[in-house]
What does this fold into?
Amino acid sequence: MKQADLSSYLVHPNPDNGALTSQVTGRDHTGADVDVDVVTERGLTVYLNKQEIVTLMTLGDHPQYLAVGFLLNQNMLQADDVITGIDYDEELEVAIVRTQRETDYEDKMKKKVRTSGCAQGTVFGDIMEKFDTIDLSQDATLKTSWLYQLARQINTTPSIYQKAGAIHGCVLCHKAQPLVYMEDVGRHNAIDKIAGYMHMHKIQPHDKCFYTTGRLTSEMVIKTVQMQIPILISRSGFTAWGVDLAQKAGLTLIGRAKGRKFLVLAGFERVHYDVDVDQIADEPKHAGRKNGD
Amino acid sequence: MKQADLSSYLVHPNPDNGALTSQVTGRDHTGADVDVDVVTERGLTVYLNKQEIVTLMTLGDHPQYLAVGFLLNQNMLQADDVITGIDYDEELEVAIVRTQRETDYEDKMKKKVRTSGCAQGTVFGDIMEKFDTIDLSQDATLKTSWLYQLARQINTTPSIYQKAGAIHGCVLCHKAQPLVYMEDVGRHNAIDKIAGYMHMHKIQPHDKCFYTTGRLTSEMVIKTVQMQIPILISRSGFTAWGVDLAQKAGLTLIGRAKGRKFLVLAGFERVHYDVDVDQIADEPKHAGRKNGD
It folds into this structure.
């Protein structure tokens, strides 16, 4: 398969970074020893100023973006907060985000105790508070020609997934161009890294779309809406609650996007059918990507 | 494809249970309206005696097993605890597990605040305490002929996955027979339901194996070891930490088990190669199962 043009990316995966995978020796179905690449997981303990917030298990790249994005998506950092510094200690696996504003989330963290355990990742008690107040951009559109181009570009971009499997990918896109492609063991971390990147580089969400390899669960929808991105696309399936939340928030939700096929589940009005689907090839049997999650 | 013989199952999925899926109307790549089945998610708030422990997002079947299994796998219930009753209120989405022993996990739940956010699900601070003390059965074996029979049986068992996608499956097996097949939106819930079932029906773990559709992450390995099941098999990939923990615990870990292929990553001594692999068919292109997660 032809490799993607990487020039449109601001960030793309780096499968050559040896710290992100390691080799183990397994034994295959014939009894022969084989060396395989596997994804690494390491801890990242996130502090907000003086307070220890959480320990995330992560692939380990972009710890600063992950720390900032996690705090943003948990409503512990506000869009207008001034970040005065981020200290990352690789050996201690600690990232400390410092802000001008004094912060104290002792109460918020107590609340988490009673409501976490959501299907994936960590959800604090009041994460829905912000959700209900967000108006997604009505001007955003998605041409189906962009959708097909995005899928082709992303699926042919070299990734840790192609090298070692067992990892999720999320991509921030603008029209037909993928911009920021992050991977992680947990898909919520991949999203949080993008949120951190967007915050620190002042990238506006209103005309962007999100492409993910994972399932469209409630958590994916909530995070996308929180980030004010109006369109969410996945190769994978979706849950009833994910669809329901997308409808309530006016998010354009597209699942099972593979080859020429896709399924719009909410926010139909943003999708412009500008392609003759008979001109689009179906996905080859051995495409780079399997269903995520 | 021939449908599996369901007679060996103690529990198997029930795709005809209308409460577990719902229908939504989407619009496909040609612009046509289509009705699709989607998996439901609902809350289940688990109490242990007087204490509210967690709210899980779950498919919604087997709430009693899920509640008991969750508490067991969090070390809040002990193997010898006498359960005096389980109250489940469907409308309130609450399950209360009552024990003879008085319980108080206020301190434990505080600990969680600082360490949760693991790649999947909820991990309490001291979950590794028990992990280090477990000796897995050395007598357990896995014949490769069983592995192939299990995969064939499980992949042809009617499931919510086949109906609606976006769901994980875990199966407790004995030799070549699948016994308890649970599905859930989060794979940790599927495992916890099996743990609850095993506890309440006094099923011994030492000669069993676990088959899962999801990735072999650290969390999957930790839960399997905690449950004292000596063998874990998955269709999907694995992470470095998952392999590392399996090696430390002496767990037999097998990944990428599809068609005739599989890869043993730890606990090699339990695997007995009793099949001529040339006699095993490769998986058909359109098998019932994709890679999970």
In short: The CA atoms of residues 9 and 87 of chain A lie 26 Å apart.
